[in-house]
């Protein structure tokens, strides 16, 4: 896209482009925030560099979702603060600084600029960069931090209206605020013009898209139809679904449209009615099981991915057995798991529920993981000799393989990979391939077209 906005004027900035080095942590939604932030900086006259030592500015984009993520973010800030040179400036952005910025400012005076989750123009203003009133920050070019020019995440909404008992996202990012369909389509068209072949729509709850605005907001189905009508992007993927707003119209559209990737990521968290109630998930086990089987029936060949949470306060052995029974019934194609992490300000902190011993919780997670690995091994064995469609993600440098890629049933960064041992192609291309060998979480293929 050719941006009509004139360059920002930076008070006292030298003619040489200042360089910024980016350390990104956290989820895809946080990545999009960082991409928008760096996009503003590039438009303002900055350039990126590949090492902190060459940079004039170091940007650490933090995550604050659970305790482990907070620790990782703090360690990243401390590492950059310790290594930074006298004239370098350190910027901290993202969820951790958004939630704990005031406290961190006192503890880390080495940081020069603090910003939270992305707000257009906020960082530039703090840096003394003046933007013309006519410049629409929403339309600035994004910097692709994912490392794959043919793939991009496209955030369709900010925040979340759910108040799941364990989750700090509403505290960090506020209530859901869906973008307009027109803005999303415009960004998708820009990404397509840049060579993007796969977009992944992301929000905390994609199925609730637009609903907080009533009739003016549109729905996920309307958004998908607009993207199909106005772009030719071959693969359109979605993360994440919440069970309550998955309807027949959405399932039928996915089944009908080949450009809508047959992939559903729907975190269920648990299966016991008692646990679902305590987690404030607002659905029951039977509704969940019926929906999961319905998705499989209505969308032939669909890949189901989910996430479960074990060790939530009050979880008994019987509750966990109910979860395992559901996993054995549904047999998710991909499954992630977490041990409960207490987060201040979340509803569970006010509940009078007994804690689960950490060793028990970790044993439960191990049981989930072991079961899923058995399924992955069975799947791998059954795939040998079959033909699959893949997208080539990268050249396999210094390897016996030619390329690495994915099938339709694998999302970027989260799932299994394909290793191409024979055949020619280019990154971003789609190819048919014959599976000649397989291991859990990877297929070895030869291109056959």
TrEMBL record:
* UniProt keyword Nucleus present: no
Give UniProt keywords alphabetically.
4Fe-4S, Cytoplasm, Iron, Iron-sulfur, Metal-binding, Methyltransferase, Ribonucleoprotein, Ribosomal protein, S-adenosyl-L-methionine, Transferase
One GO term of the biological process aspect: tRNA modification
MTTase N-terminal domain: from which residue to which, for each copy?
18-132
Reply yes or no: does the keyword Membrane apply.
no
Q: How is the cofactor bound?
A: Binds 2 [4Fe-4S] clusters. One cluster is coordinated with 3 cysteines and an exchangeable S-adenosyl-L-methionine.
For molecular function, the Gene Ontology terms on record are:
4 iron, 4 sulfur cluster binding; aspartic acid methylthiotransferase activity; metal ion binding; methyltransferase activity; protein methylthiotransferase activity
In this chain, [4Fe-4S] cluster 2 is annotated as bound at 160, 164, 167
* Catalytic function, reaction form: L-aspartate(89)-[ribosomal protein uS12]-hydrogen + (sulfur carrier)-SH + AH2 + 2 S-adenosyl-L-methionine = 3-methylsulfanyl-L-aspartate(89)-[ribosomal protein uS12]-hydrogen + (sulfur carrier)-H + 5'-deoxyadenosine + L-methionine + A + S-adenosyl-L-homocysteine + 2 H(+)
Where does this protein reside within or beyond the cell?
Answer: Cytoplasm
Cofactor(s) required, per the database record: [4Fe-4S] cluster
Looking up InterPro entries in the UniProt record yields: Elp3/MiaA/NifB-like_rSAM (IPR006638), Methylthiotransferase (IPR005839), Methylthiotransferase_CS (IPR020612), Methylthiotransferase_N (IPR013848), Methylthiotransferase_N_sf (IPR038135), NA-bd_OB-fold (IPR012340), Ribosomal_uS12_MeSTrfase_RimO (IPR005840), rSAM (IPR007197)
**A single GO cellular-component term on record:** cytosol
Q: Where along this sequence does the record place binding of [4Fe-4S] cluster 1?
A: 27, 63, 95
* Stretches of the chain forming a coiled coil according to its record: none
EC numbers for this chain: 2.8.4.4
Residue spans crossing the bilayer: none
Task: Give residue ranges for domain TRAM.
Answer: 381-449
Ranges for domain Radical SAM core come to: 146-378
EC top class named in words? transferase
Family from the record: Belongs to the methylthiotransferase family. RimO subfamily.
Q: Which PANTHER family match?
A: RIBOSOMAL PROTEIN S12 METHYLTHIOTRANSFERASE RIMO, RIBOSOMAL PROTEIN US12 METHYLTHIOTRANSFERASE RIMO
In terms of NCBIfam families, this protein maps to: 30S ribosomal protein S12 methylthiotransferase RimO, MiaB/RimO family radical SAM methylthiotransferase
Q: What does this protein do?
A: Catalyzes the methylthiolation of an aspartic acid residue of ribosomal protein uS12.
Q: What is the protein name for this chain?
A: Ribosomal protein uS12 methylthiotransferase RimO
Q: Which gene encodes it?
A: rimO
